[in-house]
Amino acid sequence: MLTEGLETDGLVRDSIPKNSPESQDSDAKFAACLGVPIAQVQTHAIDSADGPDLKSADELTYVNSHADVLPPAEVTRDRTVFGLAQAARCVGLLFFPMFQKEISGNGWSATLDSTHSMSAPAGATIAVRIAVTITAANGNYIPCTFDNIFIMSGRVETWIRVSQLNGTPDPILEQNLALQVAGKAARQ
Questions:
Q1: Which of 28, 30, 78, 118 is the most exposed place for a label (fewest CB within 10 A)?
Q2: Is the pTM of this model over 0.85?
Q3: Structural element, H or E, at residue 182
Q4: 85-115: per-residue pLDDT in tens?
Q5: 126-135 and 141-153 as β-strands: parallel, antiparallel, unpaired?
């Protein structure tokens, strides 16, 4: 799990958590999108934890993370599942409705512009970029990019989401975050 440290320099704790709401049927939706039986994506977490919600001083960059401790066979299986060609699209299709629901209470809406695999930072297993356009209650459009970085090693799966308003996340920040989590995973 991501923690505050040198890698998060320039980010401060956000007093309003930004973790996306989880869907109770997300495993079933992910499996259906991938075209695999649900047993191929269901996880049986032994433990889990959320990292701190962080933001930049200008409030354009947000970072959150989550880690699950799983049986090693599930981590190995998930590395294969997330390597499937359609996995990135499925991650985006699963995330987007939850994001829409989260912002709709403010009179805001969003459109999904794209979702695709991207080069994973060193130490990461896979990375998925989701681009959306947010329509604020006042009618203004705000481009937003969500980079989802997955680190799967040993018994731990961690995802880091770096959200960037009006642009794309800083690749150096993403590399530093991924290296912090990968270093912890290597010591497990």
A1: 28
A2: yes
A3: helix 171-186
A4: 999 999 999 999 999 998 988 889 999 999 9
A5: antiparallel
